[in-house]
Amino acid sequence: MNKFKFMHIICAILFSTLFALPAFAGTGTGKVIWLRVSDNGFISFMTENYEDPPECARTLKTFSVKLTNEAGHAMLEMLLTAQAQDIDITVLGYGNCKDQSMHERTFYIKIER
């Protein structure tokens, strides 16, 4: 295989990988300021700090989590634990408000200790 063809394959793989990864936007850090569980199956919550929110979440500066799967329930448990024990968290968002308008979808939550 010649050098040009090899580089072409590598570039194609890297380019396709770029679009397979979620585009992160908002990052929340600090304490959980408030947490709301709605009857529509979603959690909304706010952290002390919120950087780079997507346009749709700039007014409320909040995140959302779906309670329709195990990951959502695990995130709810983490949020309740962090709030009850006054522990700092880090939240990374997806960069969109696909699930609930004005609340950024949550990609992951990490408890700091």
Could you describe the 3D structure shown?
This protein is of the alpha+beta class and 113 residues long. It has one domain (23-111): OB fold (Dihydrolipoamide Acetyltransferase, E2P). The protein contains two helices and five strands. The chain has helices spanning 3-20, 70-84; strands at 27-37, 42-51, 62-66, 89-93, 103-111. It has a five-stranded mixed beta barrel with strand order 1-2-3-5-4. Strand 1 (27-37) and strand 2 form a beta hairpin. It is globular and about 50 Å long. The N and C termini lie far apart (51 Å).
List keywords for this structure.
113 residues, 5 strands, 35% strand, globular
Brief characterization of the structure:
The protein contains 2 helices and 5 strands.
Number of helices: 2
CATH topology: OB fold (Dihydrolipoamide Acetyltransferase, E2P)
Percentage of β-strand residues: 35-45%
How many strand elements?
A: 5
Q: Give me the secondary-structure category.
A: alpha+beta
Order of secondary-structure elements: HEEEHEE
Mean pLDDT score, rounded?
86
Taken from the alpha-carbon principal axes, the silhouette is globular
Main β-sheet description: 5 strands, mixed, barrel
The strand order across the widest sheet is 1-2-3-5-4
Gap between N and C termini: 51 Å
CATH class: Mainly Beta
Radius of gyration: 18 Å
Instruction: Supply the CATH architecture.
Output: Beta Barrel
Q: Give the domain tally.
A: 1
